[in-house]
Write a structure and sequence with these properties.
Chain lengths: ~325, ~675
């Protein structure tokens, strides 16, 4: 087990190092520090100011290792900074990136964590229900509604919900965020509802398929033959044995909760990491953007390892060697 | 099992109650409804709040409130008029014999900065200190400091010794790296002051400025030249958890930035140290509601006798919330959660009807304020180009005149800006000295026949280039690669196609476009200019030879060079507003009319919507925030919000009934299955 984990971490390190190399090529070789400086400071800035800006941001060194610069170059500096989590300052406004990440994690989790839990709480029982009533009108209605929900763009859910629930019915604010626990719920209700509606169709179809596949296996037939009740079969046998595919989907999603939601945060004015990423894309803030991509790759690798470990926990047949 | 179901249903009930309790669309704390808070929005946080650098409208919305200036514009009078703010009076002006003019400013005594921890640098327990003229001189030195990178170095170079100070500072820094490590005030003191900015005592500053640039005074009504305490620049260095100075303004203005979260919210609170609050008995012109205004102000309720002479500010707090999308912002305005908004294009037809407000908007008590921006948008010809430029002499002039005669600006404005904009006849927008509402540029009329004649006279009959025997080909260079941009440019190319001229659109990215401009490899382009200050000089300089892009990398991208125009420009620049200046401007516009380096398009027009509880609203045109003059009736606002936003709950009951209707047959099916 330990060997397996170490081996997976080793593979993960290679993946992350590769991602860092790609980021270096994209953000330093394709787009030069000169371009980045001009984007941040303006086109008609004196050369001396550009040079000073490059020094302040550590962009004044040779690009690649070479004579006299084997250690002090931008490639080595890029790896050193990222691997030691010293992300430096934003290209756009000089704010320390780590501070920005710290301030964004809270609002992101405030949105994604309840949304994630609520999606599971709603989608899993509903999927079990439609699987239980397979081939009945409940199953068919469920599947049609799920396909319908999947077919609609999340943007339509957002605009529709803001208009109908926020503007016409006056239930919740159309957008905004306040971390005060007394009022936070009114700001999160609408984005959570939208996230739930936009995601439930796909979840329901996936979980239903998994449960149906499992309910056609021999041991379920045997259980039925022995007179075991249908509800007990679904909850005790089918659900437990469906955990492997469920975990693949669910555990992998957990690390990404920290990254927030790009669209929901952006449209509902939630100052989380998703909104920060969108701002960095729109504002050519390359230092923030490459940090977010790097963190995304770390979370992905971490999620993969967690998923593998969870297989061993739920299925005694899986040996992590 | 039963107790589990009971517990679950209890929790579900609790959640439901919680959700119903949360059922309000008010995005603000209930306790704030009885406060005079102005609610505004922003899309992007400003890159910097350093007054020496910040040059955008969104930055000035903060720096203009936090940093008070020596002078400011009269809130109501038009044309714009300067009045003293931190200065005790307008400066004494004295023309010297050697090409310099002296401006002597006197500052009011007893002015204080806002309370801030940075003043601990003066001694333990210090929270504020007096504002003195040394602080204005310090800010002028910051403007000259190349490392600060101020965008207004060029106009400020008219101060004697400004450039020299900059050169001395840089030379000293390059010669001695240890010098650069010292605090800025020490560096500036060691290098010595700007020769033409002399401080006498604590409250007097005498500037020596080139006589050719009397417009310098306008810069003293902008945050660039506001007094800045050296302590703030020193203290807020971005280290040890302190923000950088560019994120933490410290000024002597009517408001203080008390909260600054770039991602979601800024808050400005009334500054208890502001002189208008501490000394209402001074009745200072910039701290008291004015008693005079422009025609129409009285009728619009802006000279309400109850308001006139009252000490400012009226509004105790300004809250800016981030709204990245325009639709939610507009909907929140309609719900009463923002006090003012622009007209978004998605709702334009619903809001505006035949140039005025629609009935539904008027019924809601919303008012519309239109204001023509001191701006100009134009199509420029590169006068260095062999085909369209001055090299071609009469032939090219007639080509430019012909092309000008077919661009229908009214149609352009109607199609692309919902009619918002005034067709431009010259570079000068309405509201500026020199603008003549009666003036009609004969080459800005639509006259296809005359255009064809001119084109034939230019040697391009029916647009055919005699050298190739094919339609004359020109290029229209732009950095706008969007679909909307493409449509705009096609509007122009279609107009020129009526003459038989084939204009190709060359849309490239920003850097490539800049490269083309640097190399002079362009023929036609579209550009705009928004005034820094309300003087015709700020528009007419755009076509002076010294500002030519190819000569000095200046903003004269058309590279128009005309000695007669230049001579008149220099004369106009130094003249006070009066008949002679009007006459000179008329002659300059005559040259532009004939030469046609530009096809003038529009002066943009802003439509602003306000709820009726917001009082004393008058838009400034330039990015000069004047919230201190505004007032609001928060009682009326609370009442309207309550009436407009009552939750509609019947869908919850219908939805619950539907769920029950769906579940009960399910239970029956389940029971049947079990049997």
């Amino acid at each position: 087990m330990l060997n397996y984990v170490l081996r997976r971490i080793g593979y993960g390190i290679f993946v992350v190092l590769g991602v860092l190399l790609l980021l270096f090529i994209l953000f330093f070789a394709v787009t030069t520090p000169e371009d980045v400086a001009r984007k941040a400071l303006g086109e008609r800035v004196p050369v001396a100011v550009i040079e000073q800006w490059k020094v302040n941001h550590g962009y004044d060194k040779p690009l690649l290792p070479g004579p006299g610069a084997w250690r002090d170059n931008m490639l080595v500096e890029h790896y050193r900074r990222m691997l030691t989590f010293d992300f430096g300052r934003s290209d756009a406004d000089d704010v320390p990136i780590s501070e920005r990440i710290k301030s964004g994690i809270g609002p992101s989790l405030a949105l994604t964590l309840p949304l994630f839990i609520l999606s599971l709480v709603v989608a899993l029982p509903l999927s079990l229900l439609v699987a239980f009533f397979r081939e009945t009108y409940i199953d068919r209605t469920g599947v049609v509604l799920a396909v319908l929900a999947m077919s609609v763009s999340i943007l339509l859910y957002i605009i529709g919900a803001q208009y109908i629930i926020g503007r016409v019915l006056h239930w919740f604010p159309i957008s905004g965020f306040d971390a005060d626990p007394r009022v936070i719920l009114r700001f999160l209700a609408l984005p959570i509802l939208v996230g739930l509606c936009a995601g439930i169709g796909g979840d329901l179809r996936f979980y239903r398929t998994v449960f149906l596949e499992e309910s056609n296996t021999d041991y379920v037939r045997t259980a039925r033959a022995k007179g075991c009740g249908e509800a007990r079969i679904m909850s005790r046998h089918v659900f437990r044995n469906s955990l492997i595919p469920l975990l693949t989907r669910v555990v992998l999603a957990i690390p990404f909760l920290f990254m927030g939601s790009l669209l929901l945060e952006s449209f509902f004015g939630i100052p989380g990491l998703g909104a920060i990423t969108v701002d960095a894309i729109q504002g050519n803030d390359f230092s923030v953007l490459r940090t977010m991509v790097y963190i995304g790759s770390l979370l992905f690798v971490g999620g993969q390892i967690l998923t593998d470990l969870s297989y061993g926990l739920v299925d005694p047949r899986v040996r992590l060697e | 099992m039963k107790s589990l179901a009971k517990r679950f249903s209890k929790r579900a009930l609790f959640l439901f109650v919680l959700l119903v309790l949360a059922c309000t669309n008010n995005p603000y704390p209930d306790a704030d409804s009885d406060k005079k808070i102005l609610y505004r929005s922003y899309v992007e946080a400003p890159r910097t709040l350093d007054p020496a650098v910040a040059y955008t409208t969104n930055a000035h919305a903060i720096t203009g409130e936090v940093y008070d200036t020596l002078l400011e514009y009269h809130y109501l009078k038009r044309p714009y008029e300067l009045i003293p703010a931190l200065a005790a009076a307008l400066p004494e002006v004295m023309t010297l014999n050697d090409g310099w003019t002296s401006y002597r400013f006197e500052m009011r005594k007893g002015l204080l900065y806002q309370n801030d921890p940075c003043f601990e640098l003066d001694g333990p327990g210090h929270l504020t200190r007096e504002v003195v003229m040394e602080d204005v001189a310090f800010e002028l030195m910051r403007l000259a400091d190349p490392e600060v990178n101020s965008p207004i170095v060029e106009p400020m170079s008219n101060i004697q010794g400004f450039q020299d100070f900059s050169a001395r500072l840089m030379a000293r820094r390059e010669a001695d790296p240890a010098f650069s490590e010292q605090p800025l005030p020490l560096q500036y003191a060691e290098v010595g002051p700007i020769e033409g900015a002399k401080v006498e005592g604590r409250y007097t500053l005498t500037l020596r400025v080139s006589t050719e640039y009397p417009q310098i005074l306008y810069w003293f009504a902008m945050p660039f030249t506001a007094p800045v305490p050296w302590e703030a620049v020193e203290y807020y260095d971005g280290d040890e958890g302190r923000p950088s100075f560019s994120d933490h303004p410290v000024g002597a203005g009517p408001y203080v930035l008390s909260e600054y979260d770039k991602q979601s919210r800024f808050v400005l609170e009334a500054n208890p140290n502001w002189y208008g609050v501490l000394h209402p008995e001074w009745k200072a012109p910039a701290a008291t509601y004015p008693s005079e205004g422009a025609p129409g102000d009285f009728e619009a309720g802006r000279l309400d006798p109850e308001m006139v002479g009252q000490p400012l500010p009226f509004i105790e707090r300004i809250e800016f919330s981030r709204e990245k999308e325009s639709i939610p912002l507009f909907n929140k305005f309609l719900q009463g959660y923002y006090d003012a908004a622009g007209v978004i294009k998605e709702s334009f037809d619903k809001v505006i009807h035949e140039g005025g407000l629609s009935d539904s908007m008027e019924e809601s008590g919303i008012s519309l304020e239109k204001s023509v921006q001191p701006s100009i948008f134009y199509i420029g010809f590169n006068m260095d180009d062999a085909t369209v430029g001055s090299e071609g002499g009469e032939r090219s002039r007639k080509l430019r005149q012909a092309m000008s005669l077919v661009v229908d600006t009214d149609e352009y404005t109607r199609l692309f800006s919902n009619g918002r904009g005034v067709s431009a006849q010259s570079p000068l927008p309405p509201g500026l000295f020199g603008y003549d509402p009666e003036y009609v540029n004969p080459y800005r009329l639509i006259d296809l026949e005359r255009a064809r004649e001119l084109l034939a006279e230019a040697g391009y009959p029916d647009g055919i280039d005699p050298e190739t025997g094919r339609p004359l080909e020109l290029t229209f260079d732009t950095q706008d690669t969007s679909a909307q941009g493409r449509l705009r440019f096609e509007f122009f190319t279609r107009a020129w196609r009526q003459l038989g001229i084939n204009v190709k659109i060359e849309a490239t990215n920003y850097n490539q476009f800049q490269e083309k401009v640097r190399n002079g490899a362009y023929q036609l382009f579209m550009w705009g200019w928004i005034a820094d200050y309300p003087d015709p000089e700020n528009f007419l300089f755009l076509l002076s030879s010294e500002m030519s892009r190819s000569v000095s990398d200046g903003p004269n991208t058309a590279n128009f060079q005309n000695p007669e125009y230049d001579e008149l420009y220099l004369e106009m620049k130094g003249l006070p507003n009066g008949p002679r200046r009007q006459e000179v401007i008329g002659e300059m516009l005559g040259i532009l009319e004939e030469e046609r380096p530009w096809i003038e398009l529009t002066h943009s027009e802003a439509y602003s919507l306000f709820h009726k509880w917001l009082k004393n609203v008058k838009t400034m045109g330039m990015s000069t925030p004047m919230t201190k003059y505004r007032d609001l009736d928060h009682g009326l606002r609370a009442q309207k919000r309550e009436a407009w936003n009552r939750p509609v709950l019947w869908p919850i009951y219908v939805g619950s009934a539907l769920v029950v209707a769906l579940v009960i047959p399910g239970i029956f099916t389940f029971m049947r299955e079990r049997q």
